[in-house]
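@channel sequence for tomorrow's demo:
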Amino acid sequence: MKNRFHTPTFMVNAALGGSLSILALGGIYFWLSSSTPIEEQVTNNSPSASVEMTNDESIDANINTQDITVASPEVVATLKTDLLTSEYIAVGAVPTETAADIQEPSDIEKMVTVSHGDTLMSLLVTAGATRSEAHGAITALTDVYSPRKIRPGLDIALTFAPPSAPVTEEQAKERNVGPLRAMQFQPSVERIVKVSTTEGEDSKYIAEEIQRPLTMRMARSTNEITSSLYLAATNASVPNDIMIKMIRAYSFDVDFQREIQKGDSFEVVYEAFYDEDGNLARTGEMLYGRLNLSGDDLQLYRFTPSSGFTDYFNEKGQSAKKALMRTPVDGARLSSRFGKRKHPVLGYTKMHKGVDFAAPRGTPIYAAGDGVILRANRFSSFGNYIKIRHHSGYETAYAHLKGFAKGIRKSKRVRQGQVIGYVGTTGRSTGPHLHYEVLFNGRQVNPLGVKLPAGEKLKKADLKKFKVEQAKIDKIIEELEKPAAIAKLETN
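structure tokens (generated this afternoon):
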């Protein structure tokens, strides 16, 4: 059977038809390209060009050239898009700019952080303010907040107007911003301080203080100790400052290096302040603490007796405080004990008449008890050294300090827990640590083993008031335990 697609007649007709189609499309493109865009719209009664393919592949072009309306730019652009490419090619389009497209230059925001040695004046000038603007802002600030209270680490947000005229590269090196409009910082979680300019020709700086409302709720945390109290408290989301208060309260009775065992537990109840979004903003006082060490419960309640000195007392009204603290530094690791040892520098066995606590350089060191400073200077191989005389024949010594706290000098009276210096490695030392000694009647004794005098014992009226306060705290603990108990039942 003969295939009609392979006949000479079919192949000639097909080639002729394809050629004519290409010529027709080319003619339309030539017409479009030569058209001059005008504002008139194409009318509905205008004759149009038509291309009809007859059965014998002939072309009948029926075009009335007298009534042709020139295509508008929109039609031209659309047709050229359809014929040639998927990209939009605008023919005769003139871009215009409306008022909505013109944007005013926005303010310039900068964040600066206070460093050691900075003054507020130098910070503002360095950021781009003139000395006149900085002086005006600082003067206004003093109405609500003293610039002297600004401490290193504080972030200050600054707002500048945009430059009033185009800034050259040379001008930008000196000042690439307009006038200082506002300054804002947050000195505490409850307080925001803002300085801004007033509107009008007589613009000036004014300051305001914004108080953030906080809600106080009691919080309770408890956990089992698997390796250390610090890790157990961290895993229970105990805030760091509450953990420090707990360690200090128990530091008179508990040797955290030797007495904490796996399986022990802790409980702490404290004040928690939340912002309007329900986020923890800060913590207050620790009201209650409990350590369970090898099955023994050590409970402490916060109470203020008639003496006016707030302290922590056990359930019998005995103060947790002793005459001296066993560990006068927070978060330290016991690196060397009291007794004979091979000296790490000298290389031979020598009596170690104190204990060493390894801690990062700059860690605060506290006075172990109330007393008077006998010396605070550089002393032989001890480096920077402090010695304090306490009552009942006790003295304490602190060696290898990085430096002394402000106001610490000979004959100065200090209180227990007061910062007196900072961990360092001065003198004969191999690394940052505190060498701590306790002396009784002029002779060094083991700080971790000495029996220290007991603190205050509540009596009569104070003891009666303490029992009332103790009952209140126990009631709070009972209420705080309820949600945890309900949640535990629901999960089982």
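heads up for whoever presents: The radius of gyration is 42 Å.
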